[in-house]
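Tutorial sheet, problem 5. The two components below are modelled jointly, 546 residues in total.
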Amino acid sequence: MLSIRNLSKSFGQESGERIIALDNVSLEFPRGSFTTIIGGNGSGKSTLLNCIGGNESGDTGNIFLNGRRIDQLPDYHRASFMSRLFQNPSAGTAPDMSIAENFRIASLRRQTRGLRMGIDKAFRLKVSNHLEKLGLDLEKNLEQPVGQLSGGQRQALSLIMAIFDPPQILLLDEPTAALDPKSSNLVLQMANELIKEHELTCLFVTHNMQDALSYGDRLIQLHRGKIRRDLSLKEASVLSPLDLMTWFLEGK
Amino acid sequence: MFYLSAISLGLALGAMCLGIYISLRIFNFPDITTDGSYTLGASITAVGIVSGWPMPFIIFCVLTGGLLSGVATGLIHTVLKLNSLLSGILVMTGLYSINLAILGRSNIPLPVDVSHVFSYFTLFSRTLYNELTILIIIMSVLVLLMIWLLKTDFGLALRATGSNITMARVFGIHAKAYKVCGLALANALTALSGFLVVQLQGFADINMGIGIVILGLGAVMIGESVMDIFNLKSIPMRLIGVLIGSILFRLILSLALSAGIDPLWIKLLTAVIVLIIVGLPNLMPNIKKRLEPD
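Model answer (structure tokens):
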């Protein structure tokens, strides 16, 4: 269970005015839940994800995972239970390193990194087996530098790396915004399967209204740092992308 | 035989160039600390040899000195958040006093009869061949060690931090600590160059480090250009390329000197060569454009 309690965050502008990104937000995400979060620019969804991910910290409020407070942990400590996929397909992989080396980094998320040659035959085989599921033929050349791959390939790779050693929480921060529709579907369908398979607690931020309705078992709309709507799968199932579009207009 | 001594000096400076490869190419950090940590290694070596310290102890002190210089720059950069150039310049400036204090005066010549790294083994009667052989052995071991290190889990984390810091942190890598480690490693290598060069040229001088970082940057880039010609991009090939770059750079400078250029101009020549290497690729598109008809 991931619990957000009374989380607030505001930013000072150069003009002296304060922008409220999160306004006393409390949310509970049970284990294995797949929550889609939508909202306009400045609604606070990115700040929420950043606070959970640890690259921003709230002004007040706490975040707990299974009763343990995690909001004081630096982001790299949260790696032991959390994975994250970014909007930028380049953000999740190291371009100068090979596919095998990238996976080695991913496999060490909760281990000490000693003077050991970790990439052996068994490790390569494990990586190949994971990559075969993608159907992108990446398993054929594990020595290829990741920087040579396309954006879609890199994002798919980032996803497989993120759950290579399955975490408890998966944060998807507009992971398909920079991808073409085909790559986008591939990444989201794969994420959907992996979330179910590993019972991951997933938060999925998106601007694509169709994706918002197609994926997840709960739909949250944020507006000006507050939760405006919090719908179950059943409630969301009657909605169309057009309905969601009107939500964005009504707040203006 | 000027080219043989140029090759020796190129190899001795190769350790520093390998350090620059780590700071510049892995961490994208132009590390000016190099000027100071190189002289630090040289100063410790000169004083240690003159005072009759055992060689392993001298090497230990040289590596520790270099390591601490890198840690200082790394901490200033990561904790106090000063930019990379300023962090390096601060430590380099501070090291000048420290080096002067270690040396006690601006220049220490090594006594002729004293034993050092290049007189331990006599493989050839000619000193020049002997030095060259010992340097080739030392640098081969060093390159092999680095190839190994950069392939270990620790080395992968170092490279991931340099390649994509966001990704590194997401996978639990304490990026700042690894940056400090990388700079420590780079400056330990640089100090090792100081250690070798002192024994090669027979003296330590407080000003011997001036501009040495530029030499290192130039060597790394020359090495890359050479390896690019053969499309060799793997890390082992890149490291060997760095040594080739270092040797080529020394050869160019030696050629210039033997052609009668006053040693006074050698630093300017060094700077101009590096400027050409760095600047030419940026200038080329314009030249190409100008040659094309409108």
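Marking note: The radius of gyration of chain A is 19 Å. Full credit if you identified this.
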